[in-house]
């Protein structure tokens, strides 16, 4: 998802018309617009950057975030975007924001058309892993696989998860979906075809039972052995069950998975 148009009148100045260069001091950020798109203008170490101003996670206002070097941190959940390219450098955002060409002349800063900058991450490792196994298809495992592809890693990537549902964005499970105001499609991290289109092999419903670091392989609960050149553990954590009387009553619910969410919705509908 790129930052896009909205029905509201865009805030701040029209950046294509130019702003006074002295109004953007080093370390400052300014919200304006290009057409209907909100755009963040920032000056860092003398260079002026312009990127989409709306976080691709849940629409946080990047102009109210933190400028750190050539990056900006979203004020809501701290996703980090490159000012040079608009790429998401840190979770939870997965998609880039638009990136604009900037011109400074005659004491003014003009924001021009949006551009598709080359990824700054395309770098060649001297000896890249020949295959990568990731245990855990939560936000961390999926983001790592995606970042590997964005960095230009072309070798096999296999993600194992013990859950048999497609990877979900867990925070979505406890909010609009639980309230019944969002469709199930909204809870998934990525659409189904994302994994095949990025040549990422997603193995759902398969628990990794053992890791043999010497032989460099993992063993599934079914007993299959899978070799790896590099292994990423992204196994997350599970909720602590209340160690108090009543903590195990059927009406005490724990919410971690999509199935948990569905069970809570069903229980609420049945008055439990
Ligand atoms: C209901 C809910 C609401 C939340 N709301 C927010 C919020 O509003 N804001 C916020 O910042 N955070 C929130 N969080 C926390 C956030 O979701 C987690 O921090 C995040 O999901 C962690 O991602 P992860 O990939 O590290 O781990 P996880 O999402 O836990 O994923 C780890 C995966 O590893 C798999 N796994 C573990 N062991 C194995 C194994 N041996 N073999 C195969 N697979 C394995 C698990 O099945 C799991 O799918 C919420 C969490 C929940 C549950
Ligand atoms: S809205 Fe920006 S990190 Fe969540």
> Which percent range describes the beta-strand content?
25-35%
Query: Any idea what the shape is?
Result: globular
Q: Separation of termini?
A: 38 Å
In spatial order, strands of the major sheet run 1-10-9-4-3-2
Class by helix and strand content?
alpha+beta
Helical coverage, percent range: 10-25%
Low-confidence stretches: 1-6
Please outline the major beta sheet: 6 strands, antiparallel
- Which ions and ligands are bound to the chains? flavin-adenine dinucleotide, FE2/S2 (inorganic) cluster
Number of strands: 17
Number of continuous helical runs? 5
CA-based gyration radius: 22 Å
Quaternary structure state of the chains depicted: single chain
Element pattern in H and E: EEEEEEEEEEEHEHHHEEEEEH
How much is the average pLDDT?
A: 92
How would you portray this structure in words?
This protein has 272 residues and is of the alpha+beta class. Helices cover 14% and strands 29% of the residues. The chain is built from 5 helices and 17 strands. The protein has helices spanning 139-150, 170-173, 176-179, 193-197, 258-269; strands at residues 19-20, 29-34, 37-44, 47-52, 66-68, 71-73, 80-82, 88-90, 99-105, 108-115, 132-135, 157-161, 200-204, 208-212, 217-220, 225-227, 230-233. A 6-stranded antiparallel β-sheet has the order 1-10-9-4-3-2, with no helix packed on it. A 4-stranded antiparallel β-sheet has the order 5-6-7-8, with no helix packed on it. Strand 11 (132-135), helix 1 (139-150) and strand 12 form a beta-alpha-beta unit. The longest helix has 12 residues, at 139-150. The model is unreliable at 1-6 (pLDDT under 50).
């Amino acid at each position: 998802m790129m930052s896009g148009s909205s029905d509201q009148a865009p805030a701040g100045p029209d950046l294509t018309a130019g702003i006074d260069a002295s109004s953007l001091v080093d370390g400052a950020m300014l919200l304006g617009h290009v057409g209907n798109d909100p755009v963040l203008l920032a000056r860092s170490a003398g260079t002026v950057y312009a990127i989409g101003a709306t976080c691709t996670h849940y629409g946080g206002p990047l102009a109210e975030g933190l400028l750190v070097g050539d990056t900006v941190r979203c004020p809501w959940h701290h996703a980090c975007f490159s000012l040079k390219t608009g790429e998401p450098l840190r979770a939870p955002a997965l998609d880039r924001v638009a990136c604009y060409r900037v011109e400074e002349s005659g004491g003014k800063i003009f924001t021009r058309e949006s551009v598709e900058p080359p990824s700054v991450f395309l770098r060649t490792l001297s000896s890249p892993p020949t295959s990568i196994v990731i245990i855990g298809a939560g936000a961390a495992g999926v983001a790592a696989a995606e970042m590997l592809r964005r960095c230009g890693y072309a070798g096999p990537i296999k993600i194992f998860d013990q859950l048999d549902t497609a990877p979900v964005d867990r925070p979505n499970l406890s909010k609009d979906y639980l309230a019944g105001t969002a469709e199930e499609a909204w809870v998934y991290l990525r659409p189904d075809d994302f994994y095949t289109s990025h040549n990422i092999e997603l193995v759902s419903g398969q628990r990794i039972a053992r890791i043999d670091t010497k032989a460099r392989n993992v063993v599934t609960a079914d007993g299959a052995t899978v070799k790896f050149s590099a292994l990423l553990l992204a196994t997350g954590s599970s909720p602590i069950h209340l160690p108090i009387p009543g903590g195990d009553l059927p009406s005490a619910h724990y919410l971690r998975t999509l199935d948990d969410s569905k069970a809570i919705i069903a229980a609420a509908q049945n008055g439990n």
